[in-house]
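hiii so um. not sure if this is the right channel but i have a protein structure encoded as tokens and i wanna go backwards to a sequence. like what aa goes where. can anyone help
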């Protein structure tokens, strides 16, 4: 790595003085913390009126954007005492940086703040101009370097398939037909499409979903000792920053923006325009909205963690086992919408467990075993399990595995949808997963465990719409084809509404 910074120290007044001895002494500080001879170097300097111009060069250690402040602090004391002159500010005029990458980039990359970005094989060269103190002090330079490396790595991984290793498959089952459950439910009046990626579920579909929810409660939540909690569905930026979602989710979230004012007079024009035209004046509303505070719940697990943020949990109370079913989550699915399987608004039960390594590993396996019981003995599904790229890697554009031993990572549960085609050629529906997230959340939210042990966690989101789609695609909409264990639980289906 090579860094060359042209910087200016702006003095509080023009100065005519010999600063050579001060700068020579100050330059000795640029070796501190680095192997001998590998610190930053003051290449040259020039005093012009109220500007002290510096050129600083370094390799990996004591980078110039840090070195310039060592010199600034040293000089401020010296010239303040000797010449009654202070240093008002620091500016990076020109910053040239070169470093090596693990891969050659495949496509053009765009990075904020970077004036020029060039690649020669695996060597990257960047040019930054007119850098203020916020930029220099807040380590934007190192973050830019990391971002370039990440983007090049993402391009390299993009050419590879995500890891998908099938670890278990149920026997083949005989199915009721090859119907698309969404279309068939629409014909029967069980559901109605309302808005993009949003459905109204009538009495029959709701009864089936609620029966599935009761099965989860009975066979998984109660049997494994989970306690219900309520987690916010409005998620603020601080949560997503710490959970890691802030790296990538901007194209998929529904944003939450409060009004700039609650004063009725501020909104009078909007109200009047609607009363006159009968149309919602969206442009006028947009003018009156403040910056987004965050978004609607994208994944239910992260907003639970602020409960423990920066705290230490008691080892004696481990494991923590909780679940939430207090409201919907939303994701902007764009062109990926399809029936009730891929929606913008979806309903699920979020299950979270926290504890020691062994406790989290053990609960992860017990949850998988309970799913196996439900899918085999009650729903009688044709399904399979796969060890896949964990969500916390996939969201950052990475592929492969977090743990080759199948401990930390994600298990997907996939169902066969007969109407999609043959078992071999059609895409199976990922209708459930269970993840051992390792140390990701405890580290992100700075949550510790008493006794000095490391804290781990896992989560599984039970998407009830996808359970419904999987069940009806295989068993049909007529209860006569449903497995006895499920029929007994669902009881007599309610009547649908008669619409004249």
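sure thing!! here u go:
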């Amino acid at each position: 790595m090579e860094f060359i910074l042209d910087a200016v120290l702006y003095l509080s007044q023009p100065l005519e003085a010999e600063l050579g001895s001060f700068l020579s002494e100050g330059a000795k500080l640029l070796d501190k913390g680095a192997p001998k001879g590998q610190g930053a170097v003051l290449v040259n300097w020039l005093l012009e009126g109220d500007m002290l111009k510096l050129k600083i060069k370094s390799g990996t250690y004591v980078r110039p954007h840090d070195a310039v402040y060592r010199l600034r602090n040293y000089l401020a004391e010296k010239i303040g005492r000797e010449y009654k002159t202070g240093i008002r500010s620091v500016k990076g005029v020109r910053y040239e940086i070169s470093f090596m990458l693990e891969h050659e980039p495949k496509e053009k990359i765009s990075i904020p703040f970077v004036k020029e970005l060039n690649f020669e094989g695996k060597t990257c060269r960047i040019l930054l101009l007119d850098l203020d103190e916020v930029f220099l002090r807040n380590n934007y330079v190192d973050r830019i370097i990391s971002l370039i490396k990440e983007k090049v790595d993402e391009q390299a991984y993009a050419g590879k398939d995500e890891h998908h290793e099938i670890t278990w498959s149920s026997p083949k089952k005989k199915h009721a037909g090859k119907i698309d459950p969404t279309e068939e439910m629409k014909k029967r009046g069980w559901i109605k499409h309302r808005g993009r990626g949003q459905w109204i579920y009538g009495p029959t579909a709701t009864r089936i979903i609620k029966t599935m929810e009761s099965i989860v409660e009975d066979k998984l939540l109660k049997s494994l000792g989970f306690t219900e909690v309520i987690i916010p569905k409005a998620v603020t930026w601080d949560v997503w920053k710490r959970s890691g979602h802030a790296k990538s989710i901007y194209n998929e979230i529904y944003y939450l923006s409060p009004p700039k004012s609650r004063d009725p007079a501020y909104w009078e024009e909007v109200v009047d325009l609607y009363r006159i035209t009968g149309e919602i004046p969206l442009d006028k509303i947009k003018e009156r909205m403040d910056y987004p505070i965050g978004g609607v719940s994208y994944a239910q697990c992260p907003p639970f963690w602020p409960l423990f943020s920066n705290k230490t949990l008691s080892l004696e109370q481990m494991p923590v086992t909780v679940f939430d079913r207090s409201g919907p989550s939303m994701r902007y699915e764009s062109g990926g919408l399809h029936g009730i399987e891929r929606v913008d608004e979806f309903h699920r039960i979020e299950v979270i467990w926290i504890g020691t390594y062994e406790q989290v590993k053990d609960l992860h396996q017990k949850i998988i075993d309970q799913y196996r019981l439900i899918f085999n003995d009650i729903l009688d599904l044709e399904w399979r399990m796969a060890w896949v790229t964990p969500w916390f890697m996939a969201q950052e554009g990475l592929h492969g595995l977090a743990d080759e031993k199948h401990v930390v990572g994600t298990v997907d549960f996939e169902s066969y949808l007969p109407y999609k085609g043959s078992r071999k050629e059609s895409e199976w529906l990922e209708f459930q997963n269970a993840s051992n997230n390792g140390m990701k959340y405890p580290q992100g939210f700075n949550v510790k465990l008493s006794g000095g042990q490391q804290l781990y966690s896992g989560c599984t989101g039970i998407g009830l719409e996808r359970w419904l789609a999987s069940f009806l695609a295989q068993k049909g909409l007529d209860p006569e084809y449903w497995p006895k264990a499920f029929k007994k639980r669902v009881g007599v289906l309610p009547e649908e509404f008669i619409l004249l």
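oh and The two ends are 75 Å apart (CA to CA).
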